[in-house]
Prior knowledge:
Elements: E1 2-4, E2 7-9, H1 13-21, E3 31-33, E4 49-54, E5 61-68, E6 72-79, E7 84-88, E8 91-93, E9 96-98, E10 102-107, E11 110-118
Parallel strand pairs: 2-3
Antiparallel strand pairs: 1-6, 4-5, 5-11, 6-10, 7-8, 7-11, 9-10
Amino acid sequence: MGDYSHWEVVPEETPTLARLAAADFDPARTVLVHDLIPVPPGGPNAAGGEAIITPNRSTHRVEVKVNATTPSVLLLTDRYDTTWRVAVDGQPAPLLRCNYLMRGVQVPAGAHTVVFTYHPGMGGVWLMAGC
């Protein structure tokens, strides 16, 4: 998990994989975002801030306290899946696909509570009632 104030928008999969493998890519300083979001205001040396996961026992909920020094991308090193939802300070926010297979969210500068919740679909489960 990390709070990144520097990111690159790379909306295509093949260039993302190439960038991740590039010798000049530093995953400790930069996150690659698949989704089209505004470019970061700071340079690659800007500090992102602090992110602390709030302990809980649920596998369907992750709460993170963030104190971002500048607009940032909060990156969870969990697998990206569209059935996750995210809220920043109780307001829905776009779930970002980051570093090809991870999930994240953009957060403004300041202290925030970010909550990721898992909402699996019903899939092939059906309930039939007899008449």
